[in-house]
Amino acid sequence: MTTPELEVTAPDETSGLPIDLPVEEPAASPASVPDIVDEVPVKKGRRGKVIFLAFLAIVFAVTAIVGGWYLISRKPLPEVLPGIVTVKLPSFAFAIYGISKPMGVAVSPSGDRIYVAETEGGRYLHVYDGKGQQLASVAPPGSTQGSRVPAYVAVDPLTGSVYVSDRMKGSIYVYDRDGTYLSTFVPKPAMSTFLPLGLAFDTAGNLYVGDLDPAFHRVLVFGRDGVLTRTVGTVGTFNFPNGLAVDGAGNLYVANSNDGRVLVFDATGKETGSIPRGVGTGELGLPRGIALDDQTRLYVVDTTGQAIQIYATGQADGRPKYVGTAGEEGTGDGQFEYPFGAATDTRGRIYVADWANDRVQVWSY
Q: Does domain 87-364 match CATH 2.120.10.30?
């Protein structure tokens, strides 16, 4: 199977091992002091037993304290024994099937609505409840199956409205939380070319759009009234900005797909850090979906890496810190075949559009 490039969305484009240490043999006892040699092992043996029993008592006590604390509070080990660092990763929970080549996914904060854009089949925006039961399949009025390719999805944090980008139509469609069509987003001022791709909102409700303008790919930021307030990036900054996410401080994270990196910008649009392309731990191949959770963890879907890469944000150097990886290539539970979009809710769940497996996977802590 070949890696699906972005053009798919439109007909016209694109344990460590134990170490055996040498054991020093005890020196031979002098023949002149046999009486001492006869007594020393006995004394050392008793002393060793006492030390060993004391050690066991300490281990038992610590285990009892930790176990009792966990049973009462259900808090992780680092909160019980500061200084011991453990990394908890999400695990597969369930999957939603019946979606033809899903690309974008979004979810309401509470997780009671899941929105998925499919790029083949009926090319609908599918609406599901929190358990994955389908509620609706919708499309903008007047459009035909062959004329639309819904790509990415974002939920307005202030109204709950659902925004869907369609690069083929050069439009962003707006629906209510149950999938009823409301309107088509109109940029102000009017743009001669508008090719929206990735979408995201900040906490104030400003809309961020990855735009594939022929002159240069960029991220456009619109106010609540649809007026363009600023542009992020210049010529050469972006190469297919697919996934977008904005944190509470206004920092923007962009999955710069064809450049193989995630770029980080502060609230003024200044680039402050990045996650590089490469084969090293925490590095990326083809990042597309991206999402932040309420614990400030950053999730990057690596399409060719067939996994979710997880990072901690808020680092002093501006570069997200690699935490771990979830998933692998395959068709089983917890496995991916060219995943695309990502989303999170406030219940510790991560949603991933598993493109070639025609499903959305839900992972949970």
A: yes
